[in-house]
Design brief:
The protein is an alpha/beta fold. It has 18 helices and 13 strands. The longest helix has 17 residues. Keywords: Aminoacyl-tRNA synthetase, ATP-binding, Cytoplasm, Ligase, Nucleotide-binding, Protein biosynthesis, RNA-binding.
């Protein structure tokens, strides 16, 4: 398949689009400049952004030019889409720091050399706007009645109201598309399906202001079999930054997915041929573990590189396979010899492995805590020297969560 449209459709990326036949024709005959926006609300991208990066990567591999738009300006307002509360306001310094971190991560997935892709920040044109001029020029093109019917505003309206600050977000995003169209010849916006209303606003604005045709295409959101967004862990988001989510934890997340949730990420988050994706997705019973191993390895390789993927795979197989307990490449904490005599549960709370001692008590009562594969039956168990084998002690929570503790 040479047409990226067919590739994206076959892999399950495309959810909605403004002009199906025109887009299909355009992508097969021309080199299209398109954009995806990323608001720098954190100093790392997470797995929700990763699907957008893969969307972008497929497009680039077929000769189209991506613009990664960092929302340094819109981040000062906050996107109300899919939210029931208002986003926390961020300072200029935090936004600037987040932008620089995200730029580095994007370069792993997208080739920015020789103008093959652009990385721009909407703060460059939004921050210098004159409010009266903007409202007269751009605000006059928007119908309030239509805006209020948009899904991205509905939940905010139903849960305590929508601030006028957030109400401006759609105008800003629509204006971004207009600016990118004028400056770079960008004719298409891609994004998550929760952005549909904002994307339509941009297409309409280009038509009204410049009498040109813009296009929009949304991507399926990564959801589990129950319809909830995938990529949430006990600690929060599944981050692409190895300092926030270690490659091992990242690998284990995909390795431990429920059987029913394996097919979609195989298609959306790997570059495996679809024949192989379909073969793996059709496996049943114990054989589905093969698909989970392939998924975990492939996704970790794309995000963290082959070396880290290999380490995570070896650690996982050693811990959960038939072999003995291999303590390498597992999340590790360092302690001093002052730890001797301290309670196991107290240490786990200190290290952030448990939120409270009460949580530890429940874990012990449910036979869910083990040290070096030996069940902990006493909540008050203290740490002794002999628990450290070759200078390391392994804490196991539940069936699959391991943490290694070593003496400095």
């Amino acid at each position: 398949m040479s047409n990226v449209f067919e590739v994206l459709k076959d892999r399950g990326y495309i959810k909605q689009m403004t002009h199906e036949e025109e887009i299909k024709d355009l992508l097969s005959k021309e080199k299209v400049t398109f954009y995806i926006g990323f608001d720098p609300t954190a100093d790392s991208l997470h797995v929700g952004h990763f699907i957008a990066m893969m969307f972008m990567s497929h497009m680039q591999q077929h000769g189209h030019r991506p613009i990664a738009l960092i929302g340094g300006g819109t981040a000062q307002i906050g996107d109300p889409s899919g939210r029931t509360d208002m986003r926390q306001m961020m300072t200029d310094e935090i936004i600037a720091h987040n932008v620089s971190c995200i730029k580095k991560q994007m370069e792993k997935f997208i080739d920015f050399s020789d103008d093959k892709a652009l990385l721009v920040n909407n703060a460059d044109w939004l921050r210098g706007l004159n409010y009266i001029d903007f409202i007269r020029d751009i605000g006059s093109q928007f119908s309030v009645n239509r805006m209020l019917s948009a899904d991205c505003f509905k939940s905010r309206m139903e849960n305590g109201g929508l601030s006028f600050l957030e109400f401006n977000y759609m105008l800003m995003q629509g204006y971004d598309f207009l600016v990118l169209n004028r400056k770079f010849g960008c004719t298409m916006q891609l994004g998550g399906d929760d952005q549909w209303s904002n994307m339509i606003a941009g297409v309409d604005l280009i038509r009204k202001k410049d009498r040109k045709q813009g296009y929009a295409m949304t991507c399926t959101l990564l959801t589990n079999s129950e319809g909830n967004k995938m990529g949430k862990t006990a600690k929060g988001a599944l981050w692409l930054d190895p300092e926030k989510t270690s490659p091992y934890e990242f690998y284990q997340y995909w390795r431990n997915l429920p059987d029913a949730d394996v097919a979609q990420p195989l298609a959306l988050l790997t570059f495996l041929p679809m024949d192989e994706v379909r073969r793996l997705s059709a496996l049943e019973g114990a054989e589905i573990n093969e698909a989970k191993k392939v998924l975990a390895y492939e996704v970790t390789k794309i995000v963290h590189g082959e070396e880290e993927a290999e380490k995570a795979k070896q650690a996982s197989e050693a811990l959960f396979g038939q072999g003995g307990l291999d303590l390498t490449n597992v999340p590790t904490s360092e302690v001093t010899e002052d730890v001797f005599g301290k309670g196991v549960v107290d240490l786990m709370v200190e290290l952030g492995l448990l939120k409270t001692k009460s949580e530890g008590r429940r874990l012990v009562q449910q036979n869910g805590l083990a040290i070096n594969d030996e069940k902990v039956t006493d909540f008050a168990m203290e740490i002794t020297k002999d628990l450290f084998i070759d200078g390391a002690m392994m804490i196991k929570q539940g069936k699959k969560k391991y943490n290694r503790v070593v003496i400095k």
